[in-house]
Structure formats: structure tokens, C-alpha cells
Amino acid sequence: MDALTLAGLLAEPDRRAVVAALILGATELDEIADRAGLSVRDVTDALARLESGGLVEGAGRHWVLFSEEFKAAARHRPVAAPESFDGVDGEAERILQATFRDGRLRKLPTKRSKRLVVLDYLGQLFEPGIHYSEREVNAVLGKIDDDTAALRRYLVDEGFLDRADGEYWRSGGTV
Length: 175
Fold this sequence. Notes:
Blueprint: H1 3-9, H2 13-23, H3 29-36, H4 40-52, E1 56-59, E2 62-65, H5 68-74, H6 91-99, E3 100-101, E4 104-105, H7 112-123, E5 131-133, H8 134-142, H9 148-157, E6 161-164, E7 167-170
Helix pairs in contact: 1-5, 2-3, 3-4, 6-7, 8-9
């Protein structure tokens, strides 16, 4: 995230108050509202905008601030071109754009519906009908995130990849 985007997200007083509450350790919706001195509705509106901007993520009533975005903006990292996700549009594209930065996975979403969108995208990195060794799967996933074991496990558990005899193959997801 660049400094201009961050400044835009923090332009409104309610959003700044919500971010301050998150920085001070509030994670639950009611707790954030109490610390920010705002109504739950105002906090919900602010969190929705902050989430769409990629600064926070919520799973139900639990919210997390991506504090690394402040560091990136402070370092004046050049503004990268928006991530391109061929063949993806609408809500799925928004989720992927919020989840990836410079081709790398920032954080796997905690909300299952969003996580499935990301896993579907990752599953499409593997060709149907081809068997891959664990090393080959790690090489593909390693370009996305360092925790290849967790990504492999999620892909298998959610039915995007199958595994047997040390080999993996694509078994689900969008074609």
C-alpha cells in the first residue's frame, strides 16, 4: 500500500478512531466501538471501508489490523500496478486484490468463503490431469508464500488438490 492510499483510508475521523482502537488491542466489534467512542453501526461502516482498502480483515466479529501496511507506506514503496487476475471479476477479484500484493500472498483470509476464493485461484496454478511431486507443488506455492505446507494442506483439505503416494494432482476448483 502506498502512502496516498493509506492517507485516503485514514481521511475520515471515524476510520482513524477505529484504527486507533485496533492499534490499542481491540479486536471485537463491541470493544472497538467502545474504545473508539462510536456506535456499532459507525464502526461497521468504517471497518467495511478499511477492509475494502486492505487495511483490516474481519471474520465475524473479530477484526485484525494489517500493521505492515503502515511500514510499507512509510518506506514510500513505489505504487505497484493493480494485481491482474485473468478471468476473475466481481467479488472474487476484489478478494484476490486485497489478499495479494506484488504476486505474494499477504495473509490467507480467516473467513472461509474468502479463503475458498484464494484457494480456488491457487488451485488453478496446477494443470488438471498432471501429477506433481511435493517438491514441484512447493516450487509453485513458494512463489506465492513461504508457508507451502499450510497452503498444500488447505488445498487438499478443501478439495482443490488430492494427494496419494507422495504425488498431488488438481481435483477441484474452477476450470
